[in-house]
Design goal:
Layout lengths: L4 E3 L1 H12 L11 H11 L2 E2 L9 H10 L5 H8 L3 E5 L3 E5 L3 H10 L4 H12 L1 H14 L22 H12 L2 E7 L2 E6 H4 L12 H16 L2 E2 L3 H4 L12 H6 L2 E6 L6 E4 L3 H8 L8 E3 L10 H8 L20 E6 L2 E11 L4 E9 L7 H17 L4 E4 L2 E2 L4 H14 L4
Parallel strand pairs: 1-8, 13-14, 13-15
Antiparallel strand pairs: 2-4, 3-4, 5-6, 7-9, 8-9, 10-11, 11-12, 12-13
Organism: Rhodoferax saidenbachensis
Protein name: Winged helix-turn-helix domain-containing protein
Pfam families: AlkZ-like
């Protein structure tokens, strides 16, 4: 048996970032095509409604594209290049994968969002059919089209009936999101949103679809251990190395060794060129940016810890008194490393981008170059958010605050390149 390809941890990290589109600085001018390519590379773009800084999908794209108009994402959805689906969580996905996701959601994936919809469909079929007929006869609808009469509301568990029914029909695949208005979903009959659904198509075997998603996850991750694969598309069960033997034997996946790991790693054949560059030290990290808390790079806590020695836990759903770093904490990616995190808030009315707290990775001392890179990333993010005035409230260590403020001031005076 041929000796497995070996990578250092640093090489594996760069391969992962290259596959995710986070290795090198974005092109100076973003394009709609680049936005579509970015989503295709990641396979999924997670949706979340928290907008204390900016809603997550916009942040994820900004970290990869640089300055771009937010409305491009809505235009991409309305043009039918992407669609919305339950996958890792609620996500945008490339339209060519529509049949894969619908097949997997109907037969295999056991996501909580799908399970809730299935229970709701069984107990409210009459109301669902009435709403479906209304949409079929009257055209696209959004939740706000239906007035609430019971005086409740205000949180997801207080949704009015029509909102629950729309979400159930969406999860069941009978409705799709045709567009968004002020980020609110607009629903229509699935076959009107995606006419290809009305055409006869060959059935996908469940095992075939399962294997497709395994391959897609490996490709999106660049390099991964078997145990990290299933989380990307919320597949079950967690994989073992033996589960990948057939893909390795067929050449679809390459098994490699990463120094310091007690388990083998896997690279998809589509990333062989990147693997070769990683092995020969031809991948160079030049990009620094602020990542969304819902970025694929930090989806899996164990993966983030193993690859980057970065223990990241989402705290926005944690009671305030139990938070360690803050409400909406953005990991800081600096030239191939996760070197810290910051809790931010965009005060749009005042034009202020507030860094409530910035924490360098424990045990590290930022170089002057890292301080400059992070300062520029903060200024770029602030300008893109329409909050060009940056306020640093505190840093850990405290002595980081003064040089960081000076560096930020430098970029503000010079005019940061976007």
């Amino acid at each position: 048996m041929a000796k497995a390809t070996s990578l250092t941890l640093a090489q594996a990290r760069l391969l992962h970032l290259a596959a995710q589109g986070l290795l090198t600085r974005p092109e100076k001018t973003a394009t709609r095509a680049a936005l579509r390519q970015s989503i295709a590379r990641m396979q999924l773009l997670q949706i979340d409604t928290i907008h204390v800084v900016s809603r997550s999908p916009y942040l994820v794209l900004h970290s990869r594209l640089g300055h771009y108009p937010r409305e491009w994402l809505e235009e991409t959805l309305a043009a039918g290049h992407v669609f919305e689906t339950w996958a890792h969580e609620a996500c945008f996905a490339p339209m060519p994968d529509l049949h894969l996701h619908r097949t997997y959601n109907a037969a295999t994936r056991r996501h909580w969002g799908l399970a809730n919809a299935e229970r709701h469909a069984k107990s409210h079929r009459k109301q669902l059919d009435q709403l479906l007929a209304h949409v079929r006869d009257n055209g696209p609808v959004k939740s706000s089209d239906f007035e609430r009469t019971d005086g409740g509301g205000g949180a997801w568990w207080g949704w009015k009936d029509e909102k629950r029914w729309l979400e159930t029909l969406f999860a069941q695949g009978e409705l799709m999101v045709v567009r968004r208005e002020n980020f609110h979903r607009v629903y229509d009959i699935a076959e009107r949103v995606a006419p290809q659904l009305a055409q006869a198509s060959s059935a996908w075997a469940a095992e075939t679809v399962h294997t497709h998603f395994i391959e897609k996850a490996i490709a999106a991750l660049g390099v991964t251990q078997a145990r990290w694969i299933n989380d990307y598309f919320r597949q079950k069960p967690r994989l073992k190395d033996a589960d990948l033997d057939a893909l390795v034997a067929s050449g679809a996946v390459v098994r490699v060794q990463v120094e310091g790991w007690d388990a083998p790693a896997y690279v998809h054949a589509s990333n062989k060129a990147l693997l070769g560059k990683a092995r020969t030290n031809k991948l160079e990290a030049s990009h620094t940016c602020l990542l969304s808390p819902f970025d694929p790079v930090v989806w899996d806590r164990e993966r983030g810890s193993t690859l980057f020695d970065f223990d990241y836990r989402l705290e926005c759903y944690t009671p305030e008194e139990k938070r360690i770093y803050g409400y909406f904490v953005l990991p800081i990616l600096c030239r191939g490393e996760l070197i810290g995190r910051l809790d931010a808030k965009a005060h749009r009315a005042d034009g202020v981008f507030e860094v409530r707290a910035l924490h360098a990775q424990p045990g590290t001392v930022w170089s002057e170059g890292q301080i400059m890179d992070v300062a520029q990333a903060i200024v770029q993010s602030a300008v893109w958010h329409g909050t060009p005035s940056v306020r640093i409230t505190r840093t850990q260590p405290a002595k980081l605050a003064a040089p960081l403020r000076r560096a930020i001031k430098t970029f503000q005076l010079e005019g940061s390149s976007l």
